[in-house]
Amino acid sequence: MGRPPAYAIWSQFAPTRDGGFSIQEQLVRFFRKEVATGALRPGIRIPASRALAEELNLARGTVSGAYERLAAEGFLVTRHGFGTLVAGMPAKPKRAKEKLSVSREKEGSRRARELMRARPRETHADWPLTPGVPALDAFPFALWARLNARFHRRQGASDLAYGEPLGYRPLREAIAGYVGAARGITCSPDQVLVATGTQSATFIAALVVADPGDAVFVEDPGYDGTRLAMRLADLRLIAARVDGEGLDIAGCRSGEASARLAVVSPSHQFPTGVVMSLGRRLALLEWARESEGYVIEDDYDSEFRYDGEPVASLKALDGDHGRVLYVGTLSKVLAPGLRLGFLIVPDQLVDAARAVRSALDRQVSLPLQATVAEFIGNGHLGQHIRKLRLVYAERRAALLDALDNVGAGMFRVSGAATGVHVLGELPFDIDDIAVARRARARKIGVEPLAGYKMRNDVATRPALLLGFANTQPHVMRGAVASVVDALRE
Question: What is the CATH number of domain 6-86?
Answer without folding.
Answer: 1.10.10.10
